[in-house]
């Protein structure tokens, strides 16, 4: 079954750190995602989305909530800091509640030797509590600063293959959930 409307995927860029490589990694992934037929891709860069740390309602929070609600699925692009994920990403997950529910999420992680995999595994616990579905396939860049050229391209075959597999899984879940949500509201 093919969706009539494209599947709306929001790519969330989690790092807000000065000097971050997040725009390079996210830019590469956005380009791959936009090449997939049937996807409508948006980008939410948390460095440009200053969500209140106290979770107060604000115009920024409302715009963010609306984008989360309209999306069929998500991909979090996350760095690993001190064996964990960025605080801005946790704030984003905690800033809205019901809008995340029953939606799939994939992960693109990066870092040093671990490639951000510890951050991804911790985030799987967070999104499960939000009633989200994390897809199995992930993309991981070990020693990330050595993986991209000056134009933001990579020849990392494992990452390229993983990105395509992850997007296929994300699309499958997003379309399946979209059909089910049209039939009955999520019971959680």
Low-confidence stretches: none
CATH superfamily: Flavodoxin domain
What's the SSE pattern? EHEHEHEHEEH
Span between N and C termini?
26 Å
- Indicate how many domains the architecture comprises: 1
**In the CATH hierarchy, what is the class?**
Alpha Beta
CATH architecture: 3-Layer(aba) Sandwich
Strand content: 15-25%
> What is the number of helices?
5
Radius of gyration: 16 Å
Q: Which outline best applies? A: globular
Q: Output the structural class.
A: alpha/beta
Largest sheet: 6 strands, parallel
Write down the CATH topology.
Answer: Rossmann fold
Folded structure, characterized:
This protein is an alpha/beta fold and 188 residues long. The protein has one domain (7-183): Flavodoxin domain (Rossmann fold), CATH 3.40.50.360. The chain is 39% helix and 19% strand. It contains five helices and six strands. Strands 1, 2, 3, 4, 5 and 6 form a six-stranded parallel beta sheet that branches. Strand 3, helix 3 and strand 4 (104-111) form a beta-alpha-beta unit. It is globular. The model has no long low-confidence stretch (mean pLDDT 95).
């Amino acid at each position: 079954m093919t969706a009539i409307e494209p599947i709306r995927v929001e790519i969330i860029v989690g790092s807000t750190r000065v000097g971050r490589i997040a725009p390079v990694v996210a830019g590469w992934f956005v380009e791959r995602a936009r090449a997939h037929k049937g996807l409508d891709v948006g980008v939410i860069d948390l460095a440009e989305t200053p969500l209140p740390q106290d979770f107060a309602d604000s115009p920024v929070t409302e715009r963010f909530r609306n984008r989360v609600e309209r999306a069929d699925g998500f991909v979090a692009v996350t760095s690993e800091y001190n064996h964990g994920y960025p605080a801005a990403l946790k704030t984003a997950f905690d800033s809205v509640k019901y809008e995340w529910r029953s939606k799939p999420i994939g992960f693109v992680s990066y870092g040093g030797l671990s490639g951000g995999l510890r951050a991804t595994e911790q985030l799987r616990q967070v999104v499960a509590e939000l009633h989200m579905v994390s897809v199995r396939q992930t993309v991981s860049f070990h020693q990330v600063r050595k993986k991209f050229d000056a134009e933001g391209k990579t020849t990392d075959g494992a990452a390229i293959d993983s990105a395509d597999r992850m997007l296929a899984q994300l699309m499958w879940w997003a379309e399946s959930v979209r059909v089910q949500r049209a039939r009955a509201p999520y019971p959680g």
